[in-house]
Amino acid sequence: MKSDIDICRDTRLTPIEHIAEQAGIQQQELTPQGTLKAKVKPAILKRLAEKAEGKLVVVTAITPTPLGEGKTVTTIGLAQGLAKINRSVMACIRQPSMGPVFGVKGGAAGGGYSQVAPMEKLNLHLTGDIHAVTAAHNLAAAALDARLYHESRLGYDEFTAKTGLPALRIDINNICWKRVMDHNDRALRMITIGQNEPGKTINGLERHDGFDITAASELMAILALADNLHDMRQRIGHIVVAYDLDGKPVTTEDLKVAGAMAVTMCEAIEPTLMQTLEGVPTLIHAGPFANIAHGNSSIIADKIALKLSDFVVTEGGFGSDMGFEKACNIKAQQANRGPDCAVVVATLRGLKANSGLYDLRPGQALPAAIFDEDNAALIAGFDNLKWHINNAAHYGVPVVVAINRFPQDTDAELELLQTMINNAAFTTHVDVAISEAFGKGGEGAIALAECVVKACQHQANFTPLYQLSQPLEEKIMTVAEAGYGASHVELSPLAQQQLAQFKAQGYDDLAICMAKTPLSISTDPSIKGAPTGFTVPIRELKLCAGAGFIYALCGNVMTMPGLPEKPAFMSLDIDESGNIIGLS
Amino acid sequence: MKSDIDICRDTRLTPIEHIAEQAGIQQQELTPQGTLKAKVKPAILKRLAEKAEGKLVVVTAITPTPLGEGKTVTTIGLAQGLAKINRSVMACIRQPSMGPVFGVKGGAAGGGYSQVAPMEKLNLHLTGDIHAVTAAHNLAAAALDARLYHESRLGYDEFTAKTGLPALRIDINNICWKRVMDHNDRALRMITIGQNEPGKTINGLERHDGFDITAASELMAILALADNLHDMRQRIGHIVVAYDLDGKPVTTEDLKVAGAMAVTMCEAIEPTLMQTLEGVPTLIHAGPFANIAHGNSSIIADKIALKLSDFVVTEGGFGSDMGFEKACNIKAQQANRGPDCAVVVATLRGLKANSGLYDLRPGQALPAAIFDEDNAALIAGFDNLKWHINNAAHYGVPVVVAINRFPQDTDAELELLQTMINNAAFTTHVDVAISEAFGKGGEGAIALAECVVKACQHQANFTPLYQLSQPLEEKIMTVAEAGYGASHVELSPLAQQQLAQFKAQGYDDLAICMAKTPLSISTDPSIKGAPTGFTVPIRELKLCAGAGFIYALCGNVMTMPGLPEKPAFMSLDIDESGNIIGLS
């Protein structure tokens, strides 16, 4: 089979204006950026306010191997499959970070014959939204260090006399806003800034700091959760960047930088319209992580797509314990709109990996044996799929299992898996289809599309796990126990103290975002399958007042990846004709 | 008078496709980014290869006050003036950095009725070129630290065994590639990276580092000097990022990251077409500093504009000792194309400032008295203007002095200045006109435009100060002595040692880029007027092998600005209708 970029380059694409027109977007609602991508103005929602909404299909997965199970391929493939059976459909996905593109994972445009095109535009820069988030985030950081410096240099009284601004009295030991960069750069995880030549102070105050990858910025979560430009502006102003010497929160509004941050992001709030290889209109918007953030593309993009088409296919990051849980408890509650159907992507290799019989490690290739026929492993791993189906059922949503077929998969094994699914008892509508979207595009996802149409005929009875009005600790317990099936939650003394602090500061009604490993339903990445009776240890809480959640760190979560020994960037170049080569 | 952004917003702009069509750019050579900006494909140069070139007018200035003398206003105004007298004309300017926009100086789109529009697009993001430079630059930095880490972690032999790549043996104490960010962030000037929790090493190797503002990146100079995409790719590969343990240069090609950097910048190489408030087509491209780099917009943009119009108006940063010298000795030699006319912008306040009778300090407002009538100061300051006229004459180029009129300027003073110019003897054609481009747009620059047309009828006899084939030390002497009028050059022991090293490494034929203060013709910012008999001390040399020059640090040059107590960002916001407010 051809490489992804070659498949993409050999496909005749449709001018984006035609894609937009077919989707029902009017010319004045579109800002083309070249011929194959265009910004869509959120003002379209006013025009379509009275129109009925389509069905929202959220693609999730079993507990993934470190390589992923093909959620984006299935999302794009399913959208193409729905188009093949003449349904009006749009897809909504996140914008890929350049970090993984240059690092290990490669692009995130789907793959094979189920891609968003042109993949080199999607994977690099696109329409600059991630750069805008980086710039706005780092502007706040520069504003903070500059304020710290000038207040210290002049003294609080003179600072106020000179500027007419109140002294913020920021506690240098209580700053919670790092800097960001859209690269995998481990050397920036822990740094010291504001250093000076001996005897000088012109570079500001020395302190510990660090960079996260841009996807981990609270601004990225805000972009994905904001309802409109005005809401984004307000949320940005609520961001707490530090605490003052009395322990009171210092916000970007206090720094008088929230307006400029919103200005920096005012084009980023418009989703970008692209197309799949088969011409299905696709909105690309935002790219929040699925651990320290909610891991779903934007509310604005979903809303636009739901007004324009009968089916909207989107995805949540990692397994259903991660992105899908957050789609239901964070995104859906803020958007006031839950999913109508969940698609759980499973692979034979992924289920076997969940048997616990294979030794899998992040950053390493999967063992070849995992592709051999192994009924015992498949049967053992099935528990994990069952767990994820039941998890979606918790939220009152019908489920379709999409078996993402790999070339090595045998018919016998595929049949065994289908039989197991069909024979199991569930509390919601459950169906299953094999997807060959990677190799065959929409044609390979027709069966899946038909199952999804059928599932959407079952009225979803969407219910989040908790209400925002419940106390923070209750919401944490609910996600861990009702959500994961844990038997206990253990808050560290630090987390307990932070909990009390956030409640006292009026943040009790924020949502809870669990930052845990995606490689297990529990918080221990080595525990595969469908564990029970485990404890969820919560080390630390972090406030994201602008995004509207508090994230709970369960173990270590890496917010700045590193480059491997032989990174993906080494194969990228420009050929004699000026084309990009080596992108996957 | 209205604010810049209000003037801009109240002007009816022409769709960029029409601007392009009028300029002679065909549809397939244009990639519109919305309706008011578009990328222009350098492939246009192939179609127009046989077409004759227009006249290249380079706008420069007297030794500026820290506020600048209005070069961009004059550049845009002159282009509009030429259009008013029915000349075919384009302007070429640099892309503004967001650092000054959020910091002190404000935007760089011109001002008043001589602006590039829409100014909020030009000043923020534009088409993402600066972000692309930032991303490509920091990718190389991440690649370097990752290589350092993995080679150290595995040992050289195991690294090679595992990856098949040679060990680069980078000397951690001899790294010359910092990181960059497009913000004024003094806290990042001197930092320590690669720090770890006690007993761990997963964040790489600890070392000193720092961030420059993106305009200071060698990649920005490369973007401005590259002839085409292929040339840019080759230049990127020549960048020296560090030295190995034997003192041999380590390039981005050695890191196998040059291809990915070029991929990251492959859209940035296309200039962006915009328009002035009066509809003159303007190419925006690159934004190198005028001290540690050559401070002019791109060769590609100039070449395209010269093929499309009879007059091309561009500008070099700071006074004629800085941007114009570099336009002649660096840019013109690489482009094989010198200017046909120099416009020297002078202001009454700037000449009085050059009298040495006023106490001016960067970051502080000019004293009000400088706008009062003061013939003595004007006469004393005239020496500086004379120096800059003669400097342009050195290069064999006719000169037009543009007196950028301020509302407070009296007719008597303006007349005195014109008389002094007309009565002085010069070795080149010299003319003078008053420009009221700020308040009156092109109408206010008709007299200037007529002078420029006349000057361009005088055949320029362009000659750079030195040939690239001369030895490095000779080129340094030539710029300091023949260029500035210095009597001596003093190389520090470090600079002498570096000179020997660069010669030994085969870099003797690179150009010389003087990194000195713009606030004096000498290297001491407090010496105003037209100093003679001074010494140019050279502290350090820095190799920019990809850009094709070595820059010589004469004193301290700040490559990362800081934010003031009350930065410009504080007035920026989004109003109820979603419009940007507070940008100037």
From TrEMBL, chains A, B:
EC number: 6.3.4.3
Any one GO MF annotation of this record: ligase activity
Record-linked InterPro entries: Formate_THF_ligase, Formate_THF_ligase_CS, P-loop_NTPase
Protein name: Formate--tetrahydrofolate ligase
Family matches, as HAMAP family: FTHFS
Catalytic reactions on record: (6S)-5,6,7,8-tetrahydrofolate + formate + ATP = (6R)-10-formyltetrahydrofolate + ADP + phosphate
Family membership: Belongs to the formate--tetrahydrofolate ligase family.
Positions of ATP binding: 65-72
Keywords: ATP-binding, Ligase, Nucleotide-binding, One-carbon metabolism
Pathway the protein takes part in: One-carbon metabolism; tetrahydrofolate interconversion
Leading EC class: ligase
